[in-house]
Amino acid sequence: MRPVIMDSQRIIRRVGVILALFLLIISIGVPLLLIFWQSIYDGQRLDWVAPLRTIAGHELSGILLQTIWLGVCVVAGSTLLALPLAWMMAKTRLGKHRWVDVIVMIPFMTPPYIGSMGWILFMQKGGYLQQWLPGAAGWSESFFSFGGMVLIMSLHLFPFLYLLLRDALIRIGGNLEEAGAVHGASAGYRFRKIIMPLLLSSYGMGAMLVFVKTIAEFGTPATFGRKIGYYVMTSEIHKYISSWPIDFGKATSLASILLSVCLVMWYMQSTVSRRFTYRLVGGKGQRSKRYSLRGSKGAICALYIGLLLVLSVGIPYFSVIAASLMKLRGAGLSMDNLTLEHYKELLSWGSVSLKALGNSIGLALAASTVAVVLGTFFALTIGKSQGRMQRVVDLLSLMPNTVPGIVMVVGLILLWNAPWMPVTLYNTYGMVVLTYVVLFLPYTVQYVKASFTQIDSTLFQAGQVFGGGPLLILRRILLPLVMPGMLAGWIMTFTIASRELVGSLLILPPSMQTSATYIFAQFEQGQVSLGMAMAVVSVGMTILLLLVIEAMNSNRKWNAS
Predict the structure, then answer these.
(1) Whole-number CA gyration radius for the chain
(2) Helix, coil or strand: residue 136
(3) Residue pLDDT, tens place only, 503-552
(4) What HEC string does 308-353 produce?
(5) Which of 367, 448, 439 lies closest to 408, judged by CA?
(6) Contact indicator for 63, 233 with CB cutoff of 8 Å
(7) Within 13 Å of residue 554, how many CA atoms lie on the same side as its CB?
(8) What gap in Å lies between CA 203 and CA 275, rounded to an integer?
(9) Cβ(529)–Cβ(326) under 8 Å?
(10) What is the per-residue DSSP string for 88-110?
(11) pTM of the entire structure?
(12) Distance of alpha carbon 114 from alpha carbon 216, whole angstroms
C-alpha cells in the first residue's frame, strides 16, 4: 500500500512540475522568443544580423553606447556610496543603529521618476536651492548634466548593493583579518588581499542588479535625461511603440539588443561568482571584528551617513512635499504660499485623479494576489530538488528580474496582440494584471522558496505518520510555515505594482490612468503641484498599508505566543 502512495505522490509532483513549466514558458519564455523572432524575421526571410543593422543604420549605436556607459557609471557611483556605508554598519559600532537600514531602504520604496522630479524641482533655475542660496546658480547649471543623472540614479539604486555588501562583510570573520595582522599586514593590505576577494561574489551580484536596473530604467531618463538631452535605449523603445508612426520592428530590434546585453552581464556575473565564491560559514563559530570609532574618525563616519541620508531621502522628499503644498510655484517658499487645495482637488469624489488612484490600488491588489498564488506554486514545485526540470522552472521564474521591464512588456504585447492567439488580452484590464504578475513574480518565488528550504522534511513525515493526508499537511503544516514568505512577496509585489510606470504607459487601455501615469502626465503638462500631491498620497498609502500589515502580523505572533 505504501509504494502505491509514494508512486501517486511522485506522479502528482511530476504533473505539478510540467504544469509550472508550461505556465512559465507561455508567460515568460514565449514573449522573449517572440522579441528575437520579430527582430530577425521581416515576414519573408530570416536575417540574423537585422538587429545589428538597425542599430548601425539608424544612428542608434550611439544611444546603445550611452546606455551601457550610463550603467557602468551608475555601478561605479553606487559602489562609492554603498561600500563605505556597508563597512561602517558591518565593521564598526555604528551597526547597532538599525534605524539607518530602515531609512536607507526609503529610496527603494520611492518610484525613481518621483525622486528625479524632486531633484529637478530642487536644483532647477529658481528652484528651492536658489531660493535659499541665490548664489548657487552655478551649481544648478553643473547639476543638469550627465554627472547629475548618474548621481540621481546612484542614490536610488545603492541600497541594493549596500545590503549585499553589508551581509557579506558580516560573514567575514574577524579571525581572517587578525591572522593577516599577526603576520604584519597593514590595514590597506588586509583589505586588498583578504576583504576584497571575499567580497567579489556578492559585489558581482549587486553590480549586475544595479547595471540591469539602470539600463532598464525609464522614469529618470524620461524626465531628467530628456531635460539634458541624454537618451537611452528604453526611451527609444518607448518612442517607437507609443509615438506615431509605430514601428514594432525597430522596437523589437532594440529590445533584443538590450536583452542580449543583460544576458552577457548575467553570464559575466555567474563566472565571477563561480570563481570567487568561498565558504565562510561553518560549524565553528566566528565573530566579526568591530572597530571602535573615536574622535575625528567617528565624526567623519557620522557626517558621511548624515549627508548620504540627506541626499537620498531628505532633498527628494522635501521637494515633493513642498511642491504639493504650494499655491504658486513662482511665489517661492513661504507660509502664505502653502495650501491643501491640491489634495482637496486630488481626492474630490469622481475626479480623474481619484479614479487613477483607485485603478492603481485595484490593479496592484489583483496582481499581487495572483502573483502570490502562482509564485507559491512555482516555489513549492522547485522545492529542494535539484532535478533538471526544477532548475529550468527556477531559471524561468527568475528571468523577469534579470530582463529589463520594457523588454518583457514588448514581448507580452507581441504575444497577446498576435492575430493567431485565440484570446486577445491587449488593451484590457486583464493585460495590465498579467504584465504586473510577470514582471514581479520573482519576488514571491524567492521569498517563498527561502521559507520552504528552511523547513525540515521530518515535519511532513510526522504528519503522515499520524494519518494526515496531503491536503491536511498542506493546510496545517506547510502553509503556516511558508506564510511569512508569501506575505513578504505579496507586500513587495503590491508596493512595486502600485507605482509601476513603463508597463502602465505601454499597456493601459485608452482613457485609463494609474497614479504613476497621472503623475507623469501632470509633470509633462506643467501641473507639478497636482502630480506631487498624487506622489505623496501614493507613497503615504503604501507606507500605511505596510504598517497595518506589520501590526496585524505582530498581533498574530503575540496571540500565537
Answers:
(1) 25
(2) helix
(3) 888 888 888 899 989 988 888 887 888 888 998 888 888 777 767 766 66
(4) HHHHHHHHHHHHHHHHHHECCHHHCCCHHHECCHHHHHHCCCCCHH
(5) 439
(6) yes
(7) 6
(8) 13
(9) yes
(10) HHHHBGGGG-THHHHHHTHHHHS
(11) 0.80
(12) 16
